């Protein structure tokens, strides 16, 4: 394997395995799972962060039965303007 950041990756590898004095932590973002292969027989895919937050928002703020398209547009604008972490905290 040879790529421009290889020396940095090798340094991380070395630091990760230098237990008990390791001072390295690896943080993996949600995007990592987008490249994952599905298990045999699994049709669904892992939702993106935005899709997950939208589901939380819809559960926290359900549509009323008498909702109009104008209300739905305002609701969508409110969703887009809000902080996704707030919904996750509320949920």
How would you describe what is shown here?
With 91 residues, this protein is mainly alpha-helical. It contains 4 helices and no strands. It has helices at 6-16, 49-60, 69-81, 84-90. Helix 2 crosses helix 4. It is elongated. The termini are far apart. The mean pLDDT is 83.
In short:
The chain is mainly alpha-helical.
What are its keywords?
4 helices, elongated, 91 residues, mainly alpha
What percentage of residues falls in helices of 4 or more residues? 40-55%
Structural class: mainly alpha
Distance between the termini: 43 Å
- Main sheet attributes: strand count, strand direction, barrel closure: none
Question: What is the count of β-strands?
Answer: 0
Report the sheet-strand fraction. Answer: under 5%
Mean pLDDT: 83
- Number of helical elements: 4
- What are the secondary-structure elements, in order, as H or E? HHHH
Q: Report the C-alpha radius of gyration, rounded.
A: 21 Å
Q: Report low-confidence residues grouped into runs of 5 or more.
A: none
How would the global form be characterised?
elongated
Element layout with pairings:
Elements: H1 6-16, H2 49-60, H3 69-81, H4 84-90
């Amino acid at each position: 394997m040879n790529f421009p950041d290889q020396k940095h990756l090798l340094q991380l590898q070395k630091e990760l395995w230098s237990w008990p004095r390791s001072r390295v932590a690896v943080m993996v973002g949600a995007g990592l799972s987008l490249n994952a292969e599905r298990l045999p027989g699994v049709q669904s895919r892992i939702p993106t962060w935005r899709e997950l937050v939208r589901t939380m928002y819809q559960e926290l703020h359900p549509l009323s039965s008498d909702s109009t398209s104008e209300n739905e547009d305002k609701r969508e604008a409110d969703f887009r303007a809000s902080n996704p972490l707030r919904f996750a905290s509320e949920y």
